[in-house]
Amino acid sequence: MSILCSNEKGWVISHYDYSKNLYRNVHSPTGNIDLAYNKSLFKITTPFMRDQEAEKLAAFLSSDSSLKKVRKRRCQTANDTEVQLVQKVHESLLKEARNISNFQLSVTHFDILENNATARNFVNEFYESQREGKNLKEYGLFKGTNVISIPQVVEINNRLYVMPPYSSFICCNLNDLNENDKKFDFILLDPPWWNKHVRRKKMNNCCKGYEMMRDDDIANIPISSYLQDTGLVGIWCTNGSSHIKAIKQSYFPQWGLEYVATWFWIKVTDSGEPVCSFTNSNGKRPYERIIFGASQKRRFQNPEEFKCFLSVPSALHSHKPPLVDILKDYLPENVKCLELFARYLLPGWTSVEFPISCVIK
């Protein structure tokens, strides 16, 4: 279970707790074991900033005049309606979470100077480890399945992988995807949007970047070939207006879908503070969105407009929180789900990506 608490505006969820509950009693060659994501992935103590900025902030907060200035900053409001609404939901959900003793951490001067180094160092070590060993591309079509009701460790191509119950994965080119005419009730996409920042990161470290796609290429994915006539589609999207417009005006019509709702994932630190200011002058926001489109024949309840969910993000790039629990009310029983551009596995889901990695404790 990922949900910590909720109200009419949305949910507070824990990615780490979800993994801890999911990977209990894992069947392995040495006996049943308990696993979880390495907790360092979620040690996000302070908002995202460069080390130089963190040093300046720590020095500023040590000065006698800092308290008054910080309070003045917190009173600033954004003119953008969307930002204001998301900010209000953040405050509402954070209050619910703190009422049950979550996000109680008090940030220290040392935490600011440390600047999330534990999480960043762990991720750097993880990416470096991916440079070693055989590249998954060398295996060609790469896939696996867990057909039992508990998670298990499976061996594929002489490597061990942890798989949730009834899950399957395929690492391949989307053009090579063949699910034997299988249709899904829900399809989730996390497309590799064309992004200059990611392009620079890939040039510096191929393991941290990924292959990006243009809007036209994403629109040409044959979603209708995999979706039930009564199906629902969700697309993770950046806050870029061009991508949002493309989804609503190009992708959904091409896939035979109608726009139904937008939800917002609010990313916070261990103390509940947003990972960046809601009023950043550079346009960055502490949230991402997921946009839903539905078939006209859909018989189930559609997601409501402007719901939010709040969580501490993983330090791994594009490692999104699990939506399994918060989507239950909008999907049929014994639901069949497909995730394209997946970063990890979920119970009962088919995950398609190149490559899929598991980081376990």
Structural topology:
Blueprint: E1 3-7, E2 10-13, H1 15-22, H2 51-62, H3 66-74, H4 81-99, H5 109-114, H6 117-130, E3 142-145, E4 152-156, E5 159-163, E6 168-171, E7 184-189, H7 196-204, H8 215-219, H9 223-226, E8 227-237, H10 241-254, E9 257-267, E10 287-295, E11 307-311, E12 337-340, E13 349-352
Parallel strand pairs: 2-11, 6-13, 7-8, 7-12, 9-11, 12-13
Antiparallel strand pairs: 1-2, 3-6, 4-5, 8-10, 9-10
Q: Any key phrases for this structure?
A:
13 strands; 361 residues; eleven-stranded mixed sheet
Quickly describe the structure:
The protein has 361 residues and is α/β, with parallel strands linked by helices.
Give an overview of the whole structure.
With 361 residues, the protein is α/β, with parallel strands linked by helices. Helix content is 28%, strand content 21%. It has 10 helices and 13 strands. The chain has an 11-stranded mixed β-sheet with strand order 1-2-11-9-10-8-7-12-13-6-3. The chain is globular and about 65 Å long.
Evaluate the radius of gyration. 21 Å
Treating each run of at least 4 consecutive H or I residues as one helix, how many helices?
Answer: 10
Total beta-strand segments: 13
Give the strand content: 15-25%
Order of strands side by side in the largest beta sheet? 1-2-11-9-10-8-7-12-13-6-3
Average residue-wise pLDDT: 86
Largest sheet: 11 strands, mixed
**Which percent bin holds the helix content?**
25-40%
Q: What's the SSE pattern?
A: EEHHHHHHEEEEEHHHEHEEEEE
Which regions have little confidence, pLDDT < 50, spanning 5+ residues? 65-78, 355-361
Structural class: alpha/beta
Overall geometry comes to globular
> Roughly how many Å apart are the termini?
19 Å
